[in-house]
Amino acid sequence: MKAIVLDLGGTRLKLGIISGGNIIAETVLPSYSKNGLLPRLPDVEIAIHKLLQSTNTEAAELTGVGVSIPGIVDTKNMTVLSINQKFSDVVGFDFNQWSQKNWGIPTVLENDARAALIGEWQYGAGKNCDNIVLVTLGTGIGGAAMIEGKLLHGKHFQAGCLGGHFTVNLHGRKCTCGNTGCVESEASSWVLPELFKKHPDFASCKASGEALLDFELLFRLASQNDKVAIEIVNNCLDAWSAGIITMIHAYDPEMVIIGGGVMKSADVILPYIQQKVTERAWTPWGNMEIKAARFTDEAGQLGMAHLLTPNP
Ligand SMILES: [Zn+2]
């Protein structure tokens, strides 16, 4: 059996065909997510049609369409309840009707961090472990939790997936979610340009001449002993550590898996967070394992295909 998977990221739409836990074909489209998703669907449908053709996939082979999205997802009715500053038109959209109309198959919809957790649990860093917290560090900060093999959803489908919006600074920045001092509004790609520009010594920092103020630049300058960059890196590492310690206290995992684009600097991030967690988390049973995600990009797609497998 094969599955169509669709990862709706804020900048990229990743489409793929999965068979037996492997991505056998994939393509990427720009999201233009500020304009919403619905205007992109005709292009998505054409791209999926091409993928099905190139893999000689018959309709009868398909289990369904797995869609992951960075929002709060009602997994009973397969609709998006709320989404933050992108794809605003998907709230209430009937994905199931869309996939039934196009390919005669159902849609399974899930939050993107939860989908990545399932992918890592089945095929990656979380194999053989049923108590996992996953955190993604990137444009935003995603989170998901699994307790005793069950993905946490909660009454309003918010359980476990708002780790990026745990308060880590009482006097912090206003977040896009309405809260202040969230992990995400203290240390994520969207706030990083502001962290640079509002630093009192920004003019003396090498980043002041750069057009793109991203984490790659930040970690590179910090490794070259740039004072401003080191200070910002340490603040970010502290915010991530505080958020992860709170997730550990909340969900009692055996391991924390960290993924996302920022993990290109895992050699700096992992030991720092491991040390903070060892020092500060209340885990009388032992030492929490902090691991890098195995997959940089594909965990969500593999997770969605797993959720479409009969009796997973
Ligand atoms: Zn927030």
Provide structural commentary:
With 312 residues, the protein is an alpha/beta fold. The chain folds into two domains: 2-110, ATPase, nucleotide binding domain (Nucleotidyltransferase, domain 5, 2-Layer Sandwich); 125-292, 2-Layer Sandwich (Nucleotidyltransferase, domain 5). It is 33% helix and 22% strand. It has a five-stranded mixed sheet with strand order 3-2-1-4-7, with helices on both faces. A five-stranded mixed sheet has the order 10-9-8-11-12, sandwiched between helices. A hairpin with a 2-residue loop joins strand 9 and strand 10. Helix 6 (215-223) packs across helix 7. The radius of gyration is 20 Å and the shape is globular. The chain starts with a strand and ends with a helix. Bound molecules: zinc ion. Zinc ion is lined by residues 165, 175, 177, 179, 182, 184-185. Zinc ion binds next to helix 4.
**Into how many domains do the coordinates divide?**
2
Q: Give a list of the ligands.
A: zinc ion
- At the fourth level of CATH, the homologous superfamily of the largest domain is ATPase, nucleotide binding domain
Integer-rounded radius of gyration: 20 Å
Averaging pLDDT over every residue, what do you get?
A: 95
Total strand segments = 12
Per CATH, which architecture of the largest domain?
2-Layer Sandwich
At CATH level 3, the topology of the largest domain is Nucleotidyltransferase, domain 5
Helix content: 25-40%
Determine the structural class based on helices, strands and strand pairing. Answer: alpha/beta
Strand order of the largest sheet: 3-2-1-4-7
The biggest beta sheet reads:
5 strands, mixed
**What overall form do the CA principal axes indicate?**
globular
Tally of helical runs: 9
N-to-C CA distance: 13 Å
**Helix and strand element order:** EEEHEEEHEHEEEHHHHEHEH
